[in-house]
Amino acid sequence: MPPEKISSLQNPRVKQLVKLRDRRPRDEAGVFLVEGYRQIRRALEKQVALSELYFSPEWFLGENEPALIAQAEAAGAKLFELSKDAFAKVAYRERPDGLLAVAPQWRRTLDELALPAAPFLLVVEAIEKPGNLGTILRSADAAGCQAVIVCDPVTDIFNPNVVRASTGVLFSVPCIVEESQRVHAWLKARGIRTIATTPAATELYSNADLRGPLAVIMGSEQYGLSEFWLKNADLPVRIPMAGQADSLNVAMATIITLFEAVRQRS
Amino acid sequence: MPPEKISSLQNPRVKQLVKLRDRRPRDEAGVFLVEGYRQIRRALEKQVALSELYFSPEWFLGENEPALIAQAEAAGAKLFELSKDAFAKVAYRERPDGLLAVAPQWRRTLDELALPAAPFLLVVEAIEKPGNLGTILRSADAAGCQAVIVCDPVTDIFNPNVVRASTGVLFSVPCIVEESQRVHAWLKARGIRTIATTPAATELYSNADLRGPLAVIMGSEQYGLSEFWLKNADLPVRIPMAGQADSLNVAMATIITLFEAVRQRS
After folding, report:
1. What is the mean pLDDT of residues A26-39?
2. What is the DSSP string of chain A?
3. Residue B256: its chain A contacts at CB < 8 A?
4. A-B C-beta contacts closer than 8 Å
5. For FRET with B61, which of A40, B41, B98, B134 sits at 20 to 30 Å CA-CA?
6. What is the pTM for the complete model shown?
């Protein structure tokens, strides 16, 4: 069946795609946006069931788009061909490449996680900037964490800029959204040690033992760790800082801590 | 003397400020832009001689702007008050705060560097994205590098987005632009060991000895290290990667390597 063609900027599907940039309509519909060739290819590789694929050949940058569209259709996505103008309206990227998909949101729980004997987890609290959350997901993937647990999110994991900044890691590393108290109780029940990074700590992160069952806890950009985690983490550690106070942001502090753990655990 | 007032979008100064976003006019004029309260404050703290300060009270976000303007004027900056529209035209930030300064470019040379007995330097080659170069400068500051040497730049260090992403580190950490061959000869003459990060290396970065006189060499986003540095660096090292191949970008690889050096050197 040939794809439905859409050229009107007033088409309800066009309007809905624009709405999905915002969290409430996204959560109400239970879906999120995946834009661009690379992201869509990664979603398909990870068996994400794209429900709809919108494409606009006038925006294509390469020659592989038709194959990707065919693959998405074979995997169950409904296809829509958009005019150049209509695609310009639905695209949220600065330089669109004529491909935008809709995928179902998922909700994983802590108890679904399949963990090894010595789990290596990352817990982040109330991250505000989508770019930071995406970079943090990449860091956890590179470091080999089995999951990222997002506590009390300010930015939700299905924000289009998280999807983009994660370069597809959102589709591969299990990402669980849960309240801090429940996460703490769950970690404690499983004997997973919690290491929390805060400038107020006296112990250097590299002097702490980061082997064995481990969860690294990182606070938000503006406020750092909450009172809850400062009080309840097993060990607060700090990263030494030679320069101006704000040279390390949360994404940078995360990758430093995770890779020190990788070094110790190898 | 009260500041000159500008409201016309056709004013030659307004036009020149817009031009300074681009490299050629910036280099021809030998100046660069510093936008926003925090950046301007940091520039003044570091005795950067701002030549001009453009302000527009209708955009101010706080109450400290008049004090900063007075400080800039006392330090020698010529003041200009812009109408709301005129400022909107010259601002390059998404959310302007009514403050934009012009500063003279500098050109430091390797031989001007004052180095300790065991220097700790970062060398980056042909970085393309201003955001990455800014983040890399922050990392070098946090790690306590004495200088960042930018070889064969694609993005120049005075790009407004480098200035912004560096959160003022551009004004504090010496940043030298030089050709790779000259940098290599200079390092060699001073007995500074070069460690180059590349996925093709067999040695793990954390198994290498990163103490003593050290320069960490990082390649560009798209092409990695050039043949020149791959051939001439003393030791190629790699960062272990558990996830998908592109999870670590150059800024992340830089901070991992620099902080392993910090750990070993402390």
Report:
1. 96
2. -PPEEE--TT-HHHHHHHHTTSHHHHHHHTEEEEESHHHHHHHHHTT----EEEE-GGG--SS-HHHHHHHHHHTTPEEEEE-HHHHHHH--SSS--SEEEEEE-----GGG----SS-EEEEEE----HHHHHHHHHHHHHHT-SEEEEES-SS-TT-HHHHHHTTTGGGTS-EEEE-HHHHHHHHHHTT-EEEEE-TT-SSBGGGS---SSEEEEE-BTTTBS-HHHHHHSSEEEB----S-TTSS-HHHHHHHHHHHHHHHH-
3. 255-256, 259
4. 96
5. B134
6. 0.93
